[in-house]
Amino acid sequence: MSFEDGGLTLRESPGLSERAVTVDFPFEEVYARLDGPPPPDPHEQAAECLRHLFRWVNSGASFRDCAGFVTRSAIVSWIVCPENHALSMTDVAGRFGKKKQSLGRWVDDFKLQFPQLCQHAHHLRASNGHHV
């Protein structure tokens, strides 16, 4: 048996036969599996996160319901953009002509859909420490 040029060559014992059998062995695949799966592509991960966010923004009949589209877009911006964290939910609702309760329903839905984005969003807490 010998290893040549990435292939495995098996030879029968001397004297039995002079023929050689060559087997293509996936050494790279074996080595990769020993090291674990390759790390995910960070760009593809980011793109998948964005797709998930935009699917939520587009939820409902958003292209026919511009007000809903704007409301959900404002919520995403408020939650993920640090420069908007100083705004209260009342501030955000007022800027878009909504009542806090109406905006709050969408914020609650966002928190259900994206708990990982909200766990460190301290601006989503009311003054009594509870989530708004």
Descriptive report:
With 132 residues, the protein is mainly alpha-helical. The protein folds into two domains: 2-34, no CATH class; 42-124. It has six helices and three strands. It has helices spanning 27-34, 42-57, 66-80, 89-95, 100-113, 115-118; strands spanning 2-4, 7-11, 20-23. The chain has a three-stranded antiparallel sheet, with no helix packed on it. Helix 3 (66-80) crosses helix 5 (100-113) and helix 4 packs across helix 5. The radius of gyration is 28 Å and the shape is elongated. It starts with a strand and ends in a 14-residue tail after the last helix. Residues 126-132 have low confidence and may be disordered.
Q: Radius of gyration in whole Å, from Cα?
A: 28 Å
Q: Could you report the average pLDDT, rounded to the nearest whole number?
A: 79
Number of strands: 3
Shape descriptor reads elongated
Class inferred from helices and paired strands: mainly alpha
> How many domains make up the 3D coordinates?
2
Keywords:
elongated, three-stranded antiparallel beta sheet, mainly alpha, 132 residues
Task: Lay out the secondary structure.
Layout lengths: L1 E3 L2 E5 L8 E4 L3 H8 L7 H16 L8 H15 L8 H7 L4 H14 L1 H4 L14
Antiparallel strand pairs: 1-2, 2-3
Helix pairs in contact: 3-5, 4-5
